[in-house]
Structure prediction request, 483 residues.
Amino acid sequence: MTDKYDVIVIGAGPAGYHAAIRCAQLGLSTACIDKSLDGGGKPVLGGTCLNWGCIPSKALLDASHKFAEAQHGLAALGIRTGEVSIDLDVMMARKGEVVKGLTGGIAQLFQGNGVKALAGSGKLLAGRQVEFTPHDGAVQILQAGHVILAPGSVPVEIPPAPLTDDIIVDSKGALEFAAVPKRLGVIGAGVIGLELGSVWGRLGAEVVVLEALEEFLPMADERIARDALKILQGQGLDIRLGARVTGSEIRGKGAKRTVTVTYQDKSGEQHVEVDRLIVAVGRRPYTEGLLAPDCGVNLDERGFLYVNDLCATDAPHVYAVGDVVRGPMLAHKAMEEGVMVAERIAGKKPLVNYDTVPSVIYTHPEIAWVGRTEQQLKASGEPFNVGTFPFSVNGRALAAHDTQGLVKVLADAATDRILGVHILGAQASELIAQAVIAMEFDASAEDLGLTMFAHPTLSEALHEAALGVAGHAIHMVNRKKRK
Ligand code: FAD
Ligand code: AMP
Prediction:
């Protein structure tokens, strides 16, 4: 007998587990297949985000930031600590506990909502049938009314730096170093490279980041990227731009192994020797073994599953969500797509607003933005006004002794509608939500300016930057004529 479900979801990362839970909440019989195993070989839910991405990286970022603060940041506040040291085993074990708690939480949510969790691989066949291969047991053919594909992404590997067990690693390996490397190389100054470089730099590694592009963080606002580069370099990250890695060679034996990395820059071929090398050059959609040739789902030219704005594939009643489809590879984008598709299957009509997807880099200070950058607006020729406000004169930032960075608000010159908000500063990841809400409701800079913000808060910097769009910021001398 073939098991039948209203919906079968393949993948239990943020995209898939959100889709599955929402389907079940809406009364649809739902199964979710996932093949991930933890370090001990047990099935785990939560995908990359919970197991090898967002959560473990933030556990290490937060721990290493506290260590850096204890080492260098507390004396100015009148707190004497004596010598501070790390216990990496405890730090790693705590990270593991956080992950375990959250992935176990998904299992409970599945159970509580009636989602059937199936541990093993799923493959889409023709006619909305799914071949399920359990980790232990015989292959089963399942029948679905609708299928949601959410298989996520995997790290890109590059021929100049093939991965080895523990010397040349991807982001997953970099979350599991058994000791702090003395010298660490990172290929790629993207989000993941900067976050992992920051973790190990704070814990004591000498970090060199090799980035092929001449420009730092080209997707961020230029002013923010420029200021962020200076701050991160000031923290000791040796970020080399225009440095394209072309080769790597492991030398020595056992614990004494090192990697000589070869790269090309303006002056020609260069070498740098490190003890560990992280390859963080991006991620690619993961579709291996997912699709039978006649299932009707197509890929786009970059290997992503091809979908329309509503995440529908070319096969009727088959959807795809998350990292495996176009758009930013971010957990919150994946979650919203999962929920949208579940609700559409249930006959509702939600949309994902791709214009208000926030981006965050969890360095310290954090970098967060939503909407368009100044350089994008200039290139498009749209007239706009700018308001900026530095944290160096924000009362709460001064009180907290955390004053680096600024807020920048870009608004349409004619309508004052907010077009983009860019934040470099402590808790930028939290502050950006206010800008996302404002943009979601089509707010003008004046709307934000007329809103009351609690004092003293970091959020007041956003308030002042919004006021600054029309030259009304109170705590800044402004040459713009008051209107
Ligand atoms: P995934 O989370 O990759 O989940 C897909 C799941 O499907 C996996 O469990 C996989 O095993 C399973 N699967 C695949 N194929 C099959 C199959 N055929 N059968 C059964 N199961 C299958 N994003 C943020 O928004 N914020 C962050 O701070 C952040 N930090 C990150 C840090 C790191 C180090 C990394 C690597 C990523 C980070 N990301 C972050 C990105 C984020 O993890 C992804 O955007 C997110 O996980 C995508 O969710 P997804 O559900 O599409 O895919
Ligand atoms: P992201 O896609 O945000 O994770 O960033 C990955 C970064 O890696 C990009 O900025 C790429 O330019 C960079 N990159 C890719 N290949 C190389 C290489 N061979 N050497 C140095 N940097 C690279």
Notes: Residues 168-281 form a domain with the FAD/NAD(P)-binding domain fold (CATH 3.50.50.60). The radius of gyration is 24 Å.
